[in-house]
Amino acid sequence: MNIEFTKEQYEQLIKAVYMGNWMANANRTDDMITEFADIEEYVLSHAKDFGLEHLAALDDEDGQTVVPSPELEADEELDRIIEEYDDETFWEELIERMTIKDIFSSIDEEDVESMKEEEFVELHETIRTKYEEEFAENGVMNIDLYTDEDDCEECCDGTCVCEEEKDCC
Q1: Quick one: pLDDT at residue 30?
Q2: DSSP string spanning the chain?
Q3: Are strands 152-154 and 56-58 parallel, antiparallel or unpaired?
Q4: Neighbours of 13 (CB within 10 A)
Q5: What CA–CA distance (Å, rounded) separates 25 from 21?
Q6: Which of 45, 44, 53, 49 is nearest to 6 (CA)?
């Protein structure tokens, strides 16, 4: 099979493959997903054929493996796309994990498992909406970590009360 690309299409392919490999392997050290790295190397190895050699370089360690060039790694458009993805993923994961934490800290696991699906979805969405609104308005400014030694909560008037004295407002 033979696929034909214009120079512009091949440049976009390089960028797409770079971001795919970055997503798959950026947080890995010893357990790289080699299929993504291999396809990135293959695509980059043909960059010169399209006059895009500035996007590929030889690996400093072995001098033979084709890797993204410093120019490709510093591409502001790709950085912006990756940062947008990371930011959206952060908020989605934080909201989801806080929602699940709240569900299981207020209801026994057995009770959650026995809930009808619609009940669970409604509860989940109610709690999730609370977090979505809070984080949209305040970001992480209202997140505090309390340890077992800190069995206190801040009241609406700014004072701290212990768990046993919940009447604060």
Answers
A1: 87
A2: ------HHHHHHHHHHHHHHHHHHHTT-SSS--HHHHHHHHHHHHTGGGGT-GGGEEE-TTTS-SEEE-HHHHT-HHHHHHHHHHHHHHHHHHHHHHHHHHHHHHHS-HHHHHHS-HHHHHHHHHHHHHHHHHHHHHHTTTT-----GGG-EEE-TTS-EEEGGG----
A3: unpaired
A4: 17
A5: 6
A6: 49
Length of the chain: 169
Give Cα separations from 73 to 32, 66, 138 (angstroms).
18, 13, 33
Spell out the residues 6+ positions from residue 150 whose beta carbon is closer than 8 angstroms to its own. none
For residues 152 and 27, give the distance between their C-alpha atoms in angstroms, rounded to a whole number.
36
Question: What pLDDT sits at residue 167?
Answer: 57
Q: Which residue has the tokens 């700014």?
A: 158
Spatial separation of the C-alpha atoms in residues 86 and 27, rounded to whole Å:
12
Distance CA 63, CA 118 (A): 58
Mean pLDDT by 10 residues, the chain (169 residues): 96 97 93 95 96 93 90 96 96 96 89 91 95 96 75 59 54
